[in-house]
Amino acid sequence: MLAAFIYWGLILINIAWLALSLYFSIFYLVRKENGNLWAFGLLNVLSAVVLWITMLVYHTWGWGITQYSSLIYLILGLLLGLTVLQAILGRESKDYKTT
User: Fold this and answer.
1) 75, 44 in Cβ contact below 8 A?
2) Whole-angstrom Cα distance, residue 22 to residue 55?
3) Is 58 exposed, middle or buried (0-12, 13-18, 19+ CB in 10 A)?
4) How many domains are contained in the chain?
5) Which of 8, 29, 65, 86 could serve as 37's disulfide partner, Cβ 3.0–4.6 Å?
6) Where are the transmembrane segments (predicted)?
7) How many CA atoms lie within 13 A of 16 on its CB side?
8) pLDDT for 24-80, tens place per residue?
């Protein structure tokens, strides 16, 4: 029973993080502060690693909770896709000085 709570707790935490990351990405894009997206991209990667390790542990020891593992794959895909977008949009243009 505790294993199920941990499993679903980590899934819900990652869904909440995905929503917050998306919200703040849009917030910083609107304010033209694209450099802040790199921090969210790094945290998305860390979140995806934790979710991947969770999936690996639950599949390895087979506690019978992973019937919804396609949800984990969806969240992993969304996290990594958002990370790629944040990396692309987080680039700031270089100001070249002509002297």
Assistant:
1) no
2) 23
3) buried
4) 1
5) 86
6) 6-30, 37-58, 70-89
7) 6
8) 999 988 988 888 888 888 999 999 999 999 888 887 876 666 566 788 889 999 999
